[in-house]
Amino acid sequence: FGDVWSGYFEAIARANKAIKYVEELDIPQTNKNQYIAEARFLRGYFYFFLVRSFGGVPLIDKVPITEEEIANTYVRASEDKIYDLIESDFQFATQLPAKQLIDLGRASGDAATAMLAKVAIYRKNWGLCANYCSNLISSGQYNLMQDYSHIWREIGEFSEESIWEVNGKGTYPQKGRLQD
Fold first, then answer.
1. Percentage helix, strand, coil, to 5, in the chain?
2. Tens digits of residue pLDDT in 15-66
């Protein structure tokens, strides 16, 4: 549990730093908007897993600087407040391109919409969930794969069934697998 807790809060801290410091970069505003939307998507994603695992958790939506802000990082917020932040982050991220066709693995507007649907399920807002899902289905960008067994194989990576995924290829051997 400690690894999950610390890992997700470390990721949230990195997202908060990106949100704060991207504004200071000397890059076009469109790039800044994209990077902030991606960081907010990731922050919402990490909080989504935390709230489902632990219920209310500390709500840290910026880089804490003052003593009061630092002290508040130890205060548990309600599940509703966490879900409100998650929804806000995913709503902001819907401005990203609907589907990433070139930079595979990056957050997209459709991925944010899919996560909003998941949040709506956990908040028991069935109608809102149905709307988000209908929008994704009617976009025509996604289909079920003909052969279900391909979904979890390399052949199924970034398929027409994938809304958002991160490439699972790594340089280290898988845990539990003997090295050759």
1. 55, 0, 45
2. 999 999 998 999 999 999 999 999 999 999 999 999 999 999 999 999 988 8
